[in-house]
Design brief:
The N and C termini lie far apart (about 55 Å). Helix 11 packs across helix 12 and helix 14 packs antiparallel against helix 15. The chain is globular, with a radius of gyration of 22 Å. It has about 400 residues and is of the alpha/beta class. The C terminus is likely disordered. The chain has 16 helices and 13 strands. It folds into 2 domains: about 250 residues, Type I PLP-dependent aspartate aminotransferase-like (Major domain) (Aspartate Aminotransferase, domain 2, 3-Layer(aba) Sandwich), CATH 3.40.640; about 120 residues, Aspartate Aminotransferase, domain 1, CATH 3.90.1150.10. Strand 6 and strand 7 form a beta hairpin. A 7-stranded mixed β-sheet has the order 2-10-9-8-5-3-4, with helices on both faces. Bound molecules: pyridoxal-5'-phosphate.
């Protein structure tokens, strides 16, 4: 098909040209004395992105699924009990992995479309007077339903129960888009991957571990070889890896981190919030509902749009792809056919999203969903025209700092 494919699945995301170019490199000796010049700064810069002041970050040639496994097998032992709410396909798959690794999982079944239930987590932990539960596992941004859980609220629930369980967070579709505040949340293991907010191809599984998690890894008995934190730590301390690293992706990671820091992390998070708000205005204008039922849990990286009864969401996706070269995300598992997903994360702006929204409108009309052509596009346009991507209060604050610097004030 002529023209660019409109990639609006919630990962993999568009790769910026600068990141793409940075990965076109000749292979080099990953044991040379020069190699650490590339890798050394990647670790502290990733820690900044994770909002992690203390701990260690691991970069595996893998994906988010590998990062899940690394977080579990390095810190837990066979038969350990863990607590995990299930509210979408990714929390479901992570729970399945926990069980297959030999953990006992207390699953908190939660309606798909809701976030982690803080009150039920607190109650389950309070009931665990013997502290058998070793970990609480929460998917920060459930990509399957467009739901962002309140991890600070989950931490408050754990603290209210005075429970020592480690907090595991899946930030695969939030890192680099929705703020992750690992130290503030006292999260112990936060996992991610390269193909979403980091705007890279799939191929890196990233895990950030707190000092408590590193301590747990000294005693954890689950088997691990490839994902062993110990082997990684030994090699990483000098800027090397225990096996051949994914060199091109590491160059890409350098470029993507540079781009995120140059834009400013707060601005990146604000841009995602602003773009997501415009997409939700479009959904309202179409007279449709999102899968996320509670406004406080609405995701800034993916919107799952429920299709009317009698319509198959897969049909919308197929028409969008075949007729308009637009890729949308499918409904997964129990949501199959009931929704389609618009990914709005990574290297995106208003006009790119308007193209996607126009394509969604055409595909919906083609499968007989009664939407007025242009209604969603117009609603998103008016939202974006009347809102600033960077909230005024932040601009005002940075101007104050600038003014006080320029007058030499010591009270800045
Ligand atoms: N967790 C979440 C929230 C995801 O969205 C995904 C993938 O989309 C995964 C985990 C699995 O990651 P991967 O496909 O990189 O293995």
């Amino acid at each position: 098909m002529a023209g660019r494919n409109f990639l609006f699945v919630p990962g993999p995301t568009n790769i910026p040209d600068r990141v793409m170019r940075s990965m076109v490199v000749a292979m080099e000796d990953h044991r040379s004395s020069r190699f650490p010049e590339l890798t050394r700064n990647l670790f502290p810069d990733l820690m900044k992105l994770y909002g992690c002041d203390e701990g260690e970050v691991f970069i595996f040639p893998s994906t988010g699924t590998g990062a899940w496994e690394a977080s579990l097998c390095n810190t837990l032992s066979p038969g350990d009990k863990v607590l995990a709410p299930r509210f979408g396909q990714f929390s479901h798959l992570w729970i399945d992995m926990m069980k297959r690794l030999g953990l006992e999982v207390e699953v908190l079944e939660t309606p798909w479309g809701e976030g982690a239930p803080e009150d039920r987590i607190a109650a389950a932990l309070k009931a665990d007077t013997g502290h058998r539960i070793k970990g609480v596992m929460v998917v920060h941004n459930e990509t399957a339903t467009g739901v962002t859980s309140d991890i600070a609220g989950v931490r408050a629930a754990i603290d209210s129960a005075k429970h020592p369980a480690l907090l595991y967070v899946d930030a695969v579709s939030s890192l680099g888009c929705i703020e992750v505040r690992m130290s503030e949340w006292k999260a112990d293991l936060v996992v991610s991957g390269s193909q979403k907010g980091l705007m890279l191809p799939a191929g890196l599984g990233i895990v950030c571990a707190s000092p408590r998690a590193l301590e747990a890894s000294a005693h954890a008995q689950l088997k691990r070889v490839f994902f062993d934190f110990g082997d990684m730590r030994k090699a990483n301390k000098d800027g090397y890896f225990p096996y051949t690293p994914a060199l091109s992706l590491l160059h890409g990671l350098r470029a993507s981190l540079d781009m995120l820091f140059e834009e400013g992390l707060d601005n990146v998070y604000d841009r995602h919030a602003y773009l997501a708000a415009g997409v939700r205005k479009a959904v309202d204008a179409w007279g449709l509902e999102t899968c996320c039922r509670v406004p406080r849990w609405q995701s800034n990286t993916v919107t799952a749009v429920m299709v009317p009864p009698g319509i198959n969401g897969a049909h919308v996706i197929d028409v969008a792809f075949r007729r308009y070269n637009l890729a949308l995300g499918a409904g997964l598992n129990i949501m199959a056919g009931k929704l389609f997903r618009i990914g709005h994360l990574g290297d995106l702006n208003e006009l790119m999203l308007l193209g996607a929204l126009a394509g969604v409108e055409m595909a919906m009309a083609d499968v007989s969903i009664p939407v007025a052509p242009g209604s969603g596009v117009a609603a998103a346009q008016s939202y974006w025209r009347s809102h600033d991507p960077i909230p005024k209060r932040r601009v005002a604050r940075s101007e104050v700092v600038y003014a006080s610097h320029s007058t030499g004030s010591i009270n800045a």
